[in-house]
C-alpha cells in the first residue's frame, strides 16, 4: 500500500487518540527509516524512546525471532529461563531485589502504587495511603496513573479519578515538607520529567525526598519509564542524584521496541505483593524478554553509557549555535529545546517534510534519538534542523 492508502485505512479503523502526522513507516535501520513511498527519514524520536537500539538491530531481531520460533508465551503460573535471566540482569543493573513484569509504563506505575499502599497498610493499617507526586509529572493513562499525574489537563473527562494523590511543585522543599503528613505512604517522581518538558530535578530536592522518606518510613518511587535504561547516560537517571529508591519503574526503551513495563523493588518493598494481589497475563513474555536481554547486554555496558553522554553533549553543543534556540535542557540523549520566535509543533511538521522525526514536550522540541545513533546520523538530522531553524 502507498502512504495515503495506509493512512486512510488507519484513520477509518483506529481511534483518534493521537494527533498523528502523515508518516506511514515501512522499514528502518538504526536511526534511519523510510516510509511506504520510499521517502527517507532520520529518527530523533525512537518511537518516544522505545527503540533504544534503533530500528531492526540485527542482534535484537535475531534474539526475538529465535525465541518466537522456540516458545512465544507461557502463563505466569510457570517458569521460563529467558525471562528469569532477564530479571536477574535487570535487578543486578539497578541494585533492586525483585521485579514485577507488566507490559507498559502505566502498568509498572500501577504496580508501584499498589506496592506502596499495601506496604503501608501491612505495617500501619488504614489511613496511610497518600502518594505525593510532582506537579508537571506524567505517570500514565490508566485512571490511577492519570490521577498520579500532576497536571490538571489530564484530570478531565474521566471522573471520578482515584483519590489519595497530592502534588508538590518540583524542587520546592518547603512545599514538600508541608505536604508530608501521617497519611503519606510514598513519594513518586521522575528524575528527569519527560512529558512535562524534559526537566531534570534539582539534586537538593531529590536528596530531601530521600531524607524525609527515610525518617518517616515513606517509600520512594522513581518513575524511570522515560528517563531510565541508559537514556540519560547512566543506566538509571537517579544515579545522577546518588540515591537508590525503594521502587523503580521502567518501560519504554527496555524492550527495544517491544512492550514491557517492570516495577522493581528492594528490601521489604520487594516482598509486599503475594499470590493473588497482582498479576498480568502477558507480563514477562519470553519473546519480549529475549529482545530486552540484548538491550540490557548493550546498554548495561559503561562504555556504551559514556557514548550516550558524549553524543548528548555533541548534539547539545550543535543546538546551542542554531537560530531560535534559547536553551537546551535534559541529560544524555533526552533533550528539550526551548525556542523563541517559532513554535515547536510547526518545527515538528517542517522537520517531517524535510525527513527528520522529532517530538515535542509541552512548548519544547524534544529529542530522544536511538541510543545507538551514529555521529553520521546525528549530523544528518542536525543539518536538517539547522536548515529549518534558519528558515531554509
Ligand atoms: C515518565 C512516564 N511514566 C509513565 C508513562 C506511561 O507509559 P506507557 O505509555 O508505556 O503506559 C510515560 C509515557 O510517556 C512516561 O513518560
How would you characterize this protein structure?
The protein is α/β, with parallel strands linked by helices. The chain has a domain at 62-299: Type I PLP-dependent aspartate aminotransferase-like (Major domain) (Aspartate Aminotransferase, domain 2, 3-Layer(aba) Sandwich), CATH 3.40.640. It is 38% helix and 19% strand. It contains twelve helices and 17 strands. The strands form four sheets. A seven-stranded mixed β-sheet has the order 4-12-11-10-7-5-6, with helices on both faces. Strands 1-2-3-15 form a four-stranded mixed β-sheet. Strand 8 and strand 9 form a beta hairpin. The relative contact order is 0.17. Bound molecules: pyridoxal-5'-phosphate (PLP). Residues 104-106, 109, 138-140, 190, 194-195, 223, 225-226, 251, 261 line the site of pyridoxal-5'-phosphate. Pyridoxal-5'-phosphate binds next to helix 5.
Amino acid at each position: 500500500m502507498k502512504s495515503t492508502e495506509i493512512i486512510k485505512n488507519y484513520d477509518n479503523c483506529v481511534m483518534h487518540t493521537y494527533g498523528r502526522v502523515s508518516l506511514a513507516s515501512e522499514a528502518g535501520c538504526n536511526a534511519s527509516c523510510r516510509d511506504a513511498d520510499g521517502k527517507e527519514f532520520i529518527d530523533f524520536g525512537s518511537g518516544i524512546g522505545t527503540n533504544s537500539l534503533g530500528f531492526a538491530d540485527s542482534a535484537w531481531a535475531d534474539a526475538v525471532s529465535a525465541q518466537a520460533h522456540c516458545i512465544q508465551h507461557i502463563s505466569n503460573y510457570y517458569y521460563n529461563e529467558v525471562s528469569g535471566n532477564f530479571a536477574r540482569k535487570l535487578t543486578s543493573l539497578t541494585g533492586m531485589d525483585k521485579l514485577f513484569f507488566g507490559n507498559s509504563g502505566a502498568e509498572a506505575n500501577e504496580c508501584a502504587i499498589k506496592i506502596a499502599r499495601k506496604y503501608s497498610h501491612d505495617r500501619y493499617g488504614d489511613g496511610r495511603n497518600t502518594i505525593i507526586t510532582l506537579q508537571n509529572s506524567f505517570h500514565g493513562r490508566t485512571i490511577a496513573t492519570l490521577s498520579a499525574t500532576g497536571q490538571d489537563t489530564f484530570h478531565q473527562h474521566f471522573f471520578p479519578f482515584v483519590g489519595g494523590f497530592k502534588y508538590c511543585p518540583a524542587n520546592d522543599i518547603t512545599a514538600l515538607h508541608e505536604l508530608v503528613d501521617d497519611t503519606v505512604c510514598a513519594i513518586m517522581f521522575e528524575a528527569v520529567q519527560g512529558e512535562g518538558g524534559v526537566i531534570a530535578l534539582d539534586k537538593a530536592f531529590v536528596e530531601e525526598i530521600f531524607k524525609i522518606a527515610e525518617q518517616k518510613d515513606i517509600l520512594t518511587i522513581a518513575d524511570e519509564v522515560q528517563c531510565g535504561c541508559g537514556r540519560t547516560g547512566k543506566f538509571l537517571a537517579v544515579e545522577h542524584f546518588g540515591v537508590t529508591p525503594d521502587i523503580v519503574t521502567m518501560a519504554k526503551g527496555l524492550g527495544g521496541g517491544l512492550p514491557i513495563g517492570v516495577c522493581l523493588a528492594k528490601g521489604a518493598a520487594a516482598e509486599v505483593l503475594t499470590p493473588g494481589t497482582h498479576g498480568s497475563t502477558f507480563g514477562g513474555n519470553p519473546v519480549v524478554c529475549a529482545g530486552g536481554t540484548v538491550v540490557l547486554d548493550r546498554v548495561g555496558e559503561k562504555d556504551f553509557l559514556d557514548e550516550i553522554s558524549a553524543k548528548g553533549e555533541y548534539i547539545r553543543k550543535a543546538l546551542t549555535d542554531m537560530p531560535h534556540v534559547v536553551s537546551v535542557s535534559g541529560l544524555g540523549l533526552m533533550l528539550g529545546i526551548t525556542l523563541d520566535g517559532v513554535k515547536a509543533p510547526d518545527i515538528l511538521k517542517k522537520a517531517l517534510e524535510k525527513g527528520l522525526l522529532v517530538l515535542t514536550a509541552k512548548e519544547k522540541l524534544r529529542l530522544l534519538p536511538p541510543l545507538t545513533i551514529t555521529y553520521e546520523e546525528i549530523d544528518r538530522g542536525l543539518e536538517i534542523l539547522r536548515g529549518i531553524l534558519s528558515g531554509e
